[in-house]
Amino acid sequence: GDYCTEDTCDSDEGCVFTPIDCDDDDECTEDDCDSETGCTYTTTKCDDYNECTIDTCDCKTGCEYEHVDCDDYDECTEDSCDKENGCEYEDVDCDDYDECTEDNCDPSEGCYTIEVDCDDYSKCTNDYCDKETGCYWEDVDCDDNDPCTVDKCCRTEGCSNTPKKCDDDNPCTWDECNTVTGFCEFTVNDCDDYSLCTNDECDEESGTCIYTEIDCNDDDECTIEFCNPDSGCVFDNVVCEYEECKESTCDPESGCEYTYYDCDDYDSCTDDFCSDDICYNVPIDCDDYDECTEDSCEAGECVHTDVDCDDYDECTYDECDSENGKCYNTPVDCNDYNMCTDESCIEGECEHTKVDCDDYDECTIDDCSVSTGCSHSTRNCNDNDECTDDNCSSVAGCI
């Protein structure tokens, strides 16, 4: 059987299977039929996934979506709704971009502003407000354009201009304030008697002038002192008398002093003396009139050093001629008057080497004579045999 049909039989048509009507007239259900169980009714899902709506279903009209009311009845917030998050509340921006107001918000009235109070309660400033920067204060100008007053300002009283006190409590000055510069000026009473031979001063108690003669004594034996009213103390230098070869100086305590000229050249090999105020330094004469010595002076003593004629050759006799100073280097005589030796000198010693008289000729007899030297006589190859020809070869000798 099928629970979803009504089964009947018609005499003409035979079996008839008519689908049953499962409509429950409710728009909030989805109507269906199961062949085993019959009609089924599933509740309609009206969720539109929008947090800004309230989802409901009317059985006659079906799904309905009503907008959520996010009004929090607060004039200080801007109300909105986000599909994912729902109602959102953002503070209202009450800034009027005027630094001279305080910006506030009342939940029932909304934004309102209060004027900023810039009063600093000081009589020494002018108070202002700038829309961009806010409060600012400018100092009150207390200058009375009189440099001889002290201009100042008190917060509670405002400006005051008090005359400068220029009294230096000195009866020897005339005290006043310069109206151009504002500086106190203290003019000393003029006690000048126009004489440089007096010290002019004012008595600080009475204000009267006092004139005291100056003392020109400088306690210097090298000056003659006196006073000129126009120029004051005059000090003329003492002129010391002249003495030959003496230097005159003046000592402030003892007066003129004389010191012999110092002609010492600090050379012990000179004679030092003075004549007519001129120093002389004459070298000591160390000449021994020997041309074979070098004459010098050392530490005040004459030194005579032999001329070096050494030629560094041991095979010569080295000597100097005292008259002309010339060096002579005479070779050592190694001649032994023997013609059979060769003479030589080595490191100062004579050596005699035997002369080699070999003429490399086998047809001569080589010999040496002390008086004449080498000799080469013909070799006699005669063997006294008439049956031979006697000859001589310079290489092999008699053949």
Kindly state the mean pLDDT as a whole number? Answer: 90
Tell me the overall shape. flat
Main-sheet strand order equals 1-2
* Count of extended strands: 34
DSSP strand content: over 45%
Task: Compute the CA-based radius of gyration.
Answer: 75 Å
Assembly of the depicted chains:
single chain
How far from one another are the termini?
172 Å
What is the helix tally?
Answer: 0
Main β-sheet description: 2 strands, antiparallel
Structural class: mainly beta
Uncertain parts: none
Helical content, roughly? Answer: under 10%
Question: Can you describe this structure?
Answer:
By secondary structure, the protein is an all-beta fold. The protein is 0% helix and 48% strand. The protein has no helices and 34 strands. It has strands at 5-10, 14-19, 29-34, 38-43, 53-58, 62-67, 77-82, 86-91, 101-106, 110-115, 125-130, 134-139, 149-154, 158-163, 173-177, 184-188, 198-202, 209-213, 223-228, 232-237, 246-251, 255-260, 270-275, 278-283, 293-298, 301-306, 316-320, 327-331, 341-346, 349-354, 364-369, 373-378, 392-393, 397-398. It has a two-stranded antiparallel sheet. A two-stranded antiparallel sheet has the order 3-4. Strands 5-6 form a two-stranded antiparallel sheet. A hairpin with a 3-residue loop joins strand 5 (53-58) and strand 6 (62-67). The mean pLDDT is 90.
Keywords summarizing the entry:
single chain; 399 residues; mainly beta; two-stranded antiparallel ribbon
Secondary-structure topology with pairs:
Elements: E1 5-10, E2 14-19, E3 29-34, E4 38-43, E5 53-58, E6 62-67, E7 77-82, E8 86-91, E9 101-106, E10 110-115, E11 125-130, E12 134-139, E13 149-154, E14 158-163, E15 173-177, E16 184-188, E17 198-202, E18 209-213, E19 223-228, E20 232-237, E21 246-251, E22 255-260, E23 270-275, E24 278-283, E25 293-298, E26 301-306, E27 316-320, E28 327-331, E29 341-346, E30 349-354, E31 364-369, E32 373-378, E33 392-393, E34 397-398
Antiparallel strand pairs: 1-2, 3-4, 5-6, 7-8, 9-10, 11-12, 13-14, 15-16, 17-18, 19-20, 21-22, 23-24, 25-26, 27-28, 29-30, 31-32, 33-34
